Amino acid sequence: MKSPNVNIYKVQMAYFFKEKSEIRAFGLISSLYNQLKDVFRTEPQSIPIPDDAPGDVPRCVWNDVNTSLTFSKIRLNFTFNIPSKFNWQELFVKFNEKIMFAIEECDIVIDRVGLVAEIMSSDNLHDLLKEYISIEKFNNAKEANISWVENIQLYNVWTYFLINESRDENKIVFDINSLPECKLSEQGISGR
Amino acid sequence: MYYKSNNAVLDQSIVWNVDAYKIKSVVTYVMDVLLEKIEYPFWIEKRIENHVFGYNSKKYEQLEKLYTMAYTTLNSLEKNYIVTNAALDEIAKLDDNWNNNGAGSFSTKLIGKCREIVMQLVAEPFICPTACSSIQFEYEKENGEYLEFEIYEDRIEVFLDTLSNGEQEFDLKGISAIDKMKQMVVDFYGVYL
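Output (structure tokens, whole complex):
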């Protein structure tokens, strides 16, 4: 298949904490703040939730124009947009280091990790797919989506082609998640 | 100014087309099953007897309050662009000659395109109508750097003035035009390391 001319413009990193982890929200906010205070020009907002509230209730939200972080007692999400002059891998490694440092400082164990990368294409993806897919309704549609999942080592990799010509949507999304049955903590692997 | 008003959004009344009680009952039932918070061992019989769904109302109400509290805070910090959407509502209402100088009104297609774009942007723009039937999106930073998009039905005209590269003007066209515009807003604000 001819490779489209693409550019990664948004990445979401997800860290799933080990079940029944002892997580003190204020401690984690404080550690994250120390690591990311130069990345965000805003302050993190702690959400006043009782300690015994369900684990999936968000405890903190921290938004800026190009960066966003939220966490509950189950998971932490960090999203960043990638300015053109930055290398996405460099940003990813630096942000991951900072977040992992904060998480480890609070003695929290990571069981699973996930990564969603949104990719912009300057080529028309539908035209590209039409060369390989000959389904009349697909080829003539204004809206065409195709997706599949692959198992690569310990990871599930979903690939999505999302095309909506009336909304000028034309993107590829990779959604990569470590498998639930392959817990990182049981293999001596950290989220790093 | 008319395009800064958000009364149009604030004044909208909420119309319920569905039976809210039924929805609440179903949600309650699902929550009970998922959270295993059923109060009575013979809950089915209890329900039939009482003609109501049996559930641990105290626990459910506590949970409902917690989730509402958390998500209200989250939503208040989300990028919902109320001012921009209200401005688009106002622009959509403009008739021909709205500026008393012969300017035309704005097509539904253009307004729709702008609404699509707005919700994809990482920062809320200041928007205003122009006399040449386009809608202008503006960003300005404290250091004087300026980014402007003029949205037409078939293209996006860009004007960028930065400290590093000075003034630049060009057009964005084709299927990736909106993606490129989104990327320009990301670039304008940058990332700090």
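Residues 6-187 of chain A form one domain.
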